[in-house]
Amino acid sequence: MSKFFYGIEDLFVNFLFAPYDFFRFLENWWASNAINWIFVIIGFVAFVFWMGQLKIFNDNNEEDKSITSHSYL
Fold first, then answer.
1. 9-44: string of b/e by CB count within 10 Å (b at 16+)?
2. pLDDT digits over 16-73, tens only?
């Protein structure tokens, strides 16, 4: 079973996270965290899009807002 976990370790350390080794040795903090900033921007854009979609559905009164409990209560 330990070989299974060592295999997972090898996959992540040697393959999936290998591009991050390039950023580790940069002197500039902003350049080192460029990938993280890209993920933050993508997440923020997705959040704004999702809130806009929720507002569209809320303005059209398409959601059932009746106050009822489940049948098992």
1. eeeeeeeeeeeeeeeeeeeeeeeeeeeeeeeeeeee
2. 988 888 777 778 888 778 888 999 999 999 999 999 999 998 888 877 777 776 666 5
DSSP 22-35: HHHT-S-HHHHTHH
Token couple for 19: 């591009």
What is the C-alpha to C-alpha distance for residues 33 and 39, in angstroms, rounded to an integer?
A: 10
List the chain domain ranges.
2-59
State how far the Cα of 21 lies from the Cα of 62, in Å rounded to an integer: 49
Task: For the full predicted model, state whether its pTM sits above 0.70.
Answer: no
